Amino acid sequence: MAEKENSLEKGEYVIGIAIILAALLVSATVWIAGSNLEKAIGNIKIAAPSGTGTGTQQPTQPANNTQPSPPTQPAAPKALSLDYSTAYFEGPANADLVMVEYSDFQCPYCGAVAPTISQVQAAYPNMKLVFRHFPLSFHPYAEKAAEAAECAGAQGQANFWKMHDAMFADQNKLAVSDLKAYAANFSLNTTAFNSCLDNGDMASKIAAEEAEGQSVGIGGTPGFMVYSKTKSGAALEAKLQPIVTTLQGYGVDAAIVKVNGQGEGIVFAGALPYANFQQILDAFN
Prior knowledge:
The chain is of the alpha+beta class.
């Protein structure tokens, strides 16, 4: 499941039961319920990628057996230069395996996947989780919610995660008055927090992170990038490319990327089930 920017939430995919698509020029909302997608990724046979291409695959409505659309030819991995040195994170600071989440506090799919991300963190304690903001313009409370997390974080990284958890726990309480109440409950300096929020002190930081996400290839939320700082090359691509191809066949945005000239990883969108995150992360073993 993923919500896309400039979307009016016009379509959803439910894989394993049915996939219903209503795609207009600027709108698509994807639901992924993972049973068949999980099986598809789990059963793929690993093969080295061959050829390059720049075409895009438009999702099609599968028959009753919910088979993915024919794959496009794999594109050459996009090279990215990224700096997460000042980003909010959980897990080992110097971990080789990194998962970056681009998220929106008002996005229902982001809220739905939050428990799955916690499950992933528990299962992969050597993974570093980095959080980046990607508020969608059609969510009226998302921007201020993102700013609230940053204003809380300005008073300590632990406060960022307290605000993060509180907002995802109840996405119906994201008005400015709610955000200020959270700050008071967390015993923050409310004068500093309220001033930060009211003056939009963190707006430029939020905009920079959203622009970064777009450069990575994120078009909706939740969006993820999983990568190794040091592993790259044909062997890793041979594990990742079948996963990318399968996701693309179901209309899910996915691609292999090179990160900072040394590591390599995968960018994908959607609130995938835990088993799919597990298959992606295990590809880096």
